[in-house]
Amino acid sequence: MSAAVSPLAPKKYPSMPVVEGVRIATAEARVKYKGRTDLLTMVFEEGTTVAGVFTRSKCPSAPVEFCRENLAGGIARILVVNSGNANAFTGKKGRATTVAVGEAAAKAVGAGKDTVFMASTGVIGEPLPAERITGFLKEMAVDAKPEGWLAAAKAIMTTDTYPKVATATVRMGEVDVIINGIAKGAGMIAPDMATMLSFVATDAPIAAPVLQELLSKGTGKTFNAVTVDSDTSTSDTLMMFATGAAARRGAPTITDAKDPKLAGFRRALNRILKTLALQVVRDGEGARKQLEITVTGAKSSRSAKKIALSIANSPLVKTAVAGEDANWGRVVMAVGKAGEPAERDLLAIWFGDIRVAHEGERDPDYSEEATSAYMKRDEIALRVDLGIGRGKATVWTCDLTKEYVAINGDYRS
Amino acid sequence: MSAAVSPLAPKKYPSMPVVEGVRIATAEARVKYKGRTDLLTMVFEEGTTVAGVFTRSKCPSAPVEFCRENLAGGIARILVVNSGNANAFTGKKGRATTVAVGEAAAKAVGAGKDTVFMASTGVIGEPLPAERITGFLKEMAVDAKPEGWLAAAKAIMTTDTYPKVATATVRMGEVDVIINGIAKGAGMIAPDMATMLSFVATDAPIAAPVLQELLSKGTGKTFNAVTVDSDTSTSDTLMMFATGAAARRGAPTITDAKDPKLAGFRRALNRILKTLALQVVRDGEGARKQLEITVTGAKSSRSAKKIALSIANSPLVKTAVAGEDANWGRVVMAVGKAGEPAERDLLAIWFGDIRVAHEGERDPDYSEEATSAYMKRDEIALRVDLGIGRGKATVWTCDLTKEYVAINGDYRS
Predict the structure, then answer these.
(1) Homologous superfamily of B22-282 in CATH?
(2) Measured in whole angstroms, how far is the alpha carbon of residue A366 from the centre of its chain?
(3) Cβ of B313 under 8 Å from any chain A Cβ?
């Protein structure tokens, strides 16, 4: 849809190392797009464990329901992702497609059907014929190579203006293990458009329940702390795979989430999740600025996050940021509408280091000029202190521009 | 800000009759605007009862707190409303202003301070010097005339592109009584901009507790069922005044909300509240289309309303309507994110009379052409049937256009 790359795109990409036990293949399946890859498979070696976090939508897509069922087994051998069609709100046909793709994928790697995971992103409500995908799987499974992480990130893009990747190398026991991740955004849902998908893989040997706990906890301050337009996709999917191949090099197998050997890994994983989540925000439809919102002094951290998201999702705050206007009155409004404990006359608000309001009024020392200069930046930090407790939270969003309306208000042709 | 009148403005205005016991005056107080009226007083005869419904914001404006306190007395003698400055987030200075205006207004009509009500709309966070207002009140109280309802509606406008009035004449006992109302919108909050204010008056003799019950109940399906951008003002105020003057012509005094003599009055009042609420939506910032959203078959009416508001507040649904796109996939998304009970495969969705989806998939008989023609209308009706219960609700909103972003993304200069 929008041809120009986001002004907030990364200036350079990391070189993505191989994750031992993962092989990658992409294809031009022409599910909808032409002249680009739109199908990704990742083949995992035997014994790979899996964890997943999915949309909270009450109307999830067929692939989300498929993955939720298979997650119970804790084992993954193949992941199949297509872009161009979300297979969401496609009724019985949608379920039939996931079953057919599941069978073909299982056959392609010679594994059980319950070791297949899949995701679809793109148009909603259009039937997705399974044969568009199934015919490719056998060949892709054979051809899959350890390299190709950037190509994988490209194959799953929809309205994204750039591919999203992240990597970390971290010490576990006496050896280095790798964590690689890819993601795509960019609004939350739409025909021809976006949902949030992210896939992370590591060669560390980590039991499925531990992997699930790492991923679930890591999501709170990363993928669940970003918002583009408050709309929640029917298909949001974050999955993590641990091949355990590093065990052959001497990495210890982790079966307890409290294992102190996980400390560095956990930090690295959370950093990767945050990097990917921020890349999604920075490629939000029409985004020109990243907005980091920190709420401190709330009654609880839960309360702080609810208030931070109320600010992040306020169209009036987001349009003000687009207009480079340090409009703290709208921030007060968004605090007030969150419904969480707040004392108007204890509120303080900062843009960057500039305190614009405190104790229920405009800060007398607040310089309109300095603030205007600050608001011209690409990355805006907004802080609100409620002054009533110790709860705090940070969330990220982007501004709301005319381009957002243009991208989403175009005819569905 | 935006010079052009909304394309959804009323084609003609009703002739507003006098409400016996109410006198009106407006003035150019230059609180912020120049060359237009920005101050309104309504003087009520002795014995006038009052009811009010206010913003749920946890950070309400000083005038909202002032009114809430005085509401306990149940008696009103004067209402003072200014536009241009909201006296919100103005700390101790803001409270001092309400006290000073309250004293001057009480003195102007020779009544107790607890019979004064006030509202302010406009810039947030700017001190509102009381003397901008107090100096006018004595003269306005003397000069106030029974006529001038349209002038009153004009004096309280901010970014509204047209004044909002409604009137009804209704039988109570053996005589006719009058209900008049005015309102202003148009976004939910902003410097130089909008909050929702509405004032309704009647000459019917109705005790304060009954008036409060009528107003509170009437709000649910009217003012509390409209949304422009999901943002809640610090200042939203709806007040109703009953002078009781019609008692002199033989109207019965109503002291019980269950009194059958109230039936016609209640219906007329609800109609007026709905008319005013819809005028606010139709003047939403940048609005070009009115969107009516009805949810049926929900688990409860509360659940239906929550889902309807989730649809109404979805930027993706609102931009689709702006783009004249019957994008039911985004409607499914908005149903799913509401968090209320829903069964994806029981959902049915209509635009106007055209069923576009049912039983979890696209309706096979759905004509893209007919739907496209329908979407070109000014007024779009969207219906979602959940198929799981008997709860239903209707809400109203407007589309989200580039003009909304332009109006709210401009520099605050």
Answers:
(1) L-amino peptidase D-ALA esterase/amidase (3.60.70.12)
(2) 37
(3) yes
- Lowest-pLDDT range, A83-92, A246-255, B75-84, B204-213? A83-92
- CB contact B29 to A (< 8 Å): no
CA distance B83 to chain A (A): 16
What CATH topology corresponds to A290-409?
Ubiquitin-like (UB roll) (3.10.20)
pLDDT in tens, A348-376: 999 999 999 998 788 988 888 999 999 99
Residue B134 is among the residues annotated as catalytic for this protein: no
pLDDT tier for residue A246 given thresholds of 50, 70 and 90: very high
CB pairs under 8 A between A and B: 250
The strand ranges marked E within A235-306 are 237-242, 290-298
Cα nearest neighbour of B190 on chain A: A330
Distance CA B218, CA B224 (A): 9
**Among partner residues B93, B340, B360, which is closest to A91 by beta-carbon distance?**
B360
Q: Is the peptide bond before A105 cis (omega within 30 degrees of 0)?
A: no
- Per DSSP, the three-state class of B99 is helix
| Angle made by CA atoms A359, A310, B339, in degrees to the nearest 5 | 145
Asked if the Cβ–Cβ distance from A125 to B362 is below 8 Å, we say yes
Cβ <8 Å between B408 and A187:
no
The answer to whether the CB atoms of A316 and B93 lie below 8 A apart is: no
Q: Which of A121, A195, A202, A401 is catalytic?
A: A195
Q: How far apart are CA B220 and CA B201, in angstroms?
A: 19
Nearest CA in chain B to A344: B59
Task: Determine the 3-state secondary structure of B217 from DSSP.
Answer: helix
Binding site members of B for substrate: 158, 184, 195, 285, 408, 413
Cα–Cα distance for residue pair B373/B317, rounded to 1 Å: 18
B316: contact with A, CB 8 A cutoff: yes
pLDDT digits (tens, 9 = 90+) for B129-184: 999 999 999 999 999 999 999 999 999 998 889 999 999 999 999 999 999 999 99
What is the DSSP pairing of strand A226-227 with strand A391-398?
A: parallel
Q: At what angle do helices B263-282 and B208-220 cross, to 10 degrees?
A: 50
Residue B312 CB neighbours (<10 A): 25
- All residues of chain A having their beta carbon less than 8 Å from the beta carbon of residue B362 are 89, 125-126
Can you give the residue ranges of every domain in chain A?
22-282, 290-409
> Which strand (E) or helix (H) includes residue B27?
strand B22-27
Strands (E), A261-364: 290-298, 348-351, 354-358, 361-362
- Closest partner residue to B357 (CB to CB) among A125, A191, A357 is A125
User: What letters, b where the CB count within 10 A reaches 16 and e where it falls short, cover B18-43?
Assistant: bbbbbbbbbbebebbbeeebbbbbbb
What gap in Å lies between CA B231 and CA A337, rounded to an integer? 7
Residue A371: phi and psi, rounded to 5, are -70, -40
The whole-angstrom distance between residue B319's C-alpha and the CA centroid of its chain comes to 23
User: Which B residues 272-291 touch A at CB under 8 Å?
Assistant: none
